């Protein structure tokens, strides 16, 4: 008995010491591999009602920037409903999910602008605890940005007030200690929302990626980005090796570019065939469609991957599903896994997040390949 306990504790401490042993090669190779840039926002979420939506002219399933008519909304939300505060922002969410999936401290890093206030401090603590190596630019005057998340019947609408997030400057990116993160990373991910803030920073990273055969990725992020930030989006597009988006965003992109089709597969294909700045990598388009299959376009072909179906009663809220999908996807991509594994990890992460409130996750992922083998259906459409 004593012997068994001894050998057990011996093997336990052995495996434990193996576990916490200095970084092995895999871990070392992944340190700082993925860098995100974006708008760090504090999410203020509440379940509201239809009258509230009407009063502030809010449409469900939309993401917009706050206007003057929304100024009193935040106070009204806090006084009338139970509000929850969480660290958010599309890119930051995706990076945090990728970090969670990888479970290797410092594998990911993130830059964006926060204020010198309580919310900013909270955000920093949050991200560091999550293992993300954050290099925030701290604005002297503007408060940390916020995003109202109005939920009705499991659907939500986002109204962002960027405040400090809008003050990010490429000067911060160029500082040696920050540019070092760019030099170290091999994969870059920036959600389209950042196009409204610092296109110069985006182009600096995009050009660095192209010149060094690294992978540059962006997200269409919202219809308003495709419509009103068309020019800056078009400037960055040739540099994008991966383009993410959902079906609504893809259709808006097509409409804005005068493509006479609403067919998501065709649109994904056309985006993947948009001219490239560098020939080192082909472009891959990844479009999600809620519970419908994920569309992946590359090499003039389209593949469809079914998502993990969830019984209705288990769905809590789809807020952050898209961000989580990207995070899961990136966690495998940086390990050079094939695209089907990336999509499966994306679906896994999204599946975890939609069963919880907001973009939150349990302590550790339970990402077992065996449980995750949906029957893959491939469907090809002809390229022109
Ligand atoms: N109803 C659902 N059932 C199962 N999986 C879902 C459902 N909704 C979303 N997902 C998962 O989340 C992924 C992304 O979903 P979706 O296309 O709705 O993104 P989105 O609309 O950008 O999300 P968000 O609400 O974060 O903006 C899907 O590919 C899928 O894996
Ligand atoms: C190295 O670390 C990675 C990531 O934690 C782990 O998956 C892998 O099994 C480890 N390899 C060895 C040889 O210990
Ligand atoms: C955004 O936040 C700033 C700082 O808190 C505030 O002054 C401004 O009125 C807000 N704008 C909107 C449109 O809510
Ligand atoms: C895709 O995202 C947009 C916001 O960018 C949202 O309005 C739309 O409902 C989403 N589409 C689906 C099918 O989830
Ligand atoms: C980003 O891409 C994902 C997956 O393609 C999509 O579901 C999501 O709507 C996009 N959204 C944001 C906010 O970046």
TrEMBL record:
Domain Carbohydrate kinase PfkB: 53-362
Cofactor: Mg(2+)
GO biological process per UniProt: adenosine salvage; AMP salvage; purine nucleobase metabolic process
KW Kinase (keyword) present: yes
E.C. number(s) listed in UniProt: 2.7.1.20
Molecular function as annotated in GO: adenosine kinase activity; ATP binding
Catalytic activity annotation: adenosine + ATP = AMP + ADP + H(+)
Catalytic residues identified in the record: 323
GO cellular component terms listed in the entry, alphabetical order: cytosol; nucleus
Signal peptide, first to last residue: 1-17
The organism's place on the tree of life at top rank: Eukaryota
UniProt KW Metal-binding keyword: no
Pathway: Purine metabolism; AMP biosynthesis via salvage pathway; AMP from adenosine: step 1/1
Pfam families given in the database record: PfkB
UniProt keyword list: ATP-binding, Host-virus interaction, Kinase, Magnesium, Nucleotide-binding, Purine salvage, Signal, Transferase
Coiled coil segments of this chain: none
Purpose of the protein: ATP dependent phosphorylation of adenosine and other related nucleoside analogs to monophosphate derivatives. Essential to sustain methyl recycling.
Family membership noted in the UniProt record: Belongs to the carbohydrate kinase PfkB family.
PANTHER family (alphabetical): ADENOSINE KINASE
Protein name from the UniProt record: Adenosine kinase
